[in-house]
Amino acid sequence: MQRFGEGRLRGRRYQSVNGLFRAPLVCVVGRGFGMNREVAKVRLASVERNVEPDRHAMKVCVVGASGKLGQYMVQHALDRGYEVMGVCREESVGKLTGFNGRITIFPGATDDREVIKKAVAGCDGVLVVLAPRGVHGYSTGTAQAVLDHAPSGARLVFSCGWHITRDGKDVYSRGFKAKVKVLGWIGKLTRVADLDDQVEACRRIFASGAQWTVVRGSELEEGESQGLPVWSRHVGDPVLESNLTRRVDFALFMVEAVENDDLVHEAPAIVGRLSPSALAHAGGG
What we know:
By secondary structure, this protein is of the alpha/beta class. It has helices at residues 68-79, 113-120, 138-149, 174-190, 195-207, 247-257, 276-281, and strands at residues 6-9, 12-17, 20-22, 34-36, 41-44, 47-48, 59-63, 83-88, 103-107, 125-129, 155-161, 211-217, 219-221, 230-232, 244-246, 269-271.
């Protein structure tokens, strides 16, 4: 494992110890987080965290809290001592009963601007599941509501898939492109989902002046956490070839991005840190 030396985490100095970053602080709440590659930076995030006893408790909002990814994000945020707000459709509030007394829930559609305005008030970070639900601009409405109403300077972290590209430099296999095309066609035909809506939502995010990160997830599976995923700026990097991440770790990366300044204005494509491609390539030069 390559050692990356000394750097900073949100203005606080940390040092690597046997390839792991140990911050001289106390919780689980940069430059120097990864290694340069010719085509892209790959970040292998294996981080030990602590939080200062007198440190301001982070307040975050999880938009889309009742889904599988959302629930994992809620749990990770609580584990880090964050104050957690959650937005989900009224009919899905029951899915969050396991968090009763520990989070504040704002029932409503995630593209409801008034609901979002109330939920994100005073938040340091907003974690958003960009679900391309239906064919009426749900993702775009959700993203725009968050962009318009999140406090200035708040960290905004959005989830999507590899099919989103920021700069057109991603390299997709024929199989991947065919799958996206078929799923997009079926989604529109059945009026269940609109991948183009998610594309438009991300276009608006990229064009905004907010402190955003768009996390692009691979195929997902359930299972025990393997730790923070590996990431690259572009799909097509060999480190991503396995195209598989634990859903719990996708959520972990999302929550990690709230306090990782090195991920501001990045659209990391992630893969599980113990996937064959990550093990084969992440430690390379």
